[in-house]
Amino acid sequence: MAGRLGVLILLVMLTAGCDAGDKRAALPPVNASPQRVVAAYIAALNAHDLRTARALLTPAHERDVESEADSWFTNLRSITHLHLHRPATDTIDARSMHYRHGVVVGAEFVLDQHEVESMEDGPNAWSFTLVRNSPGQRWLIGSEGLG
Fold first, then answer.
1. I need a surface site. Which of 15, 57, 77, 102 has the fewest CB within 10 A?
2. What CATH number does residue 64 fall under?
3. What is the rounded distance in angstroms from the CA atom of residue 28 to the CA atom of residue 42?
4. In terms of C-beta density within 10 A (0-12 exposed, 13-18 middle, 19 or more buried), how is residue 34 classed?
5. Residue pair 111/119 in contact by the 8 Å Cβ criterion
């Protein structure tokens, strides 16, 4: 498991510095781990593939990200040196978002933005709360914030 996660993180890091052009990021399979969903989200943001990025968010969180002045969708240049932590169960936040299952995945990365506003460029710690209602559903990012 750790080996596959390391390869996935390496792939995200390699694609992070590339000129996105018309590149599409891959949507992970429905049974993807929470870490793989977060890595796919970061890869989509780095590729400026907002369709794939939005597909990995709950509808409510998509609206939140869309409305932020310094949104990942509009202010991000790149996220590199991504390191993801193992997920920790978090049913309290999941239930507050009306989902049955929830986990938190901590992340560390180097951020480069067009405008420095709510987060500094450079190393950052962040966390992603992923939710779903059943094991057969894809994990979706329901919220995120300072790690």
1. 77
2. 3.10.450
3. 12
4. buried
5. yes
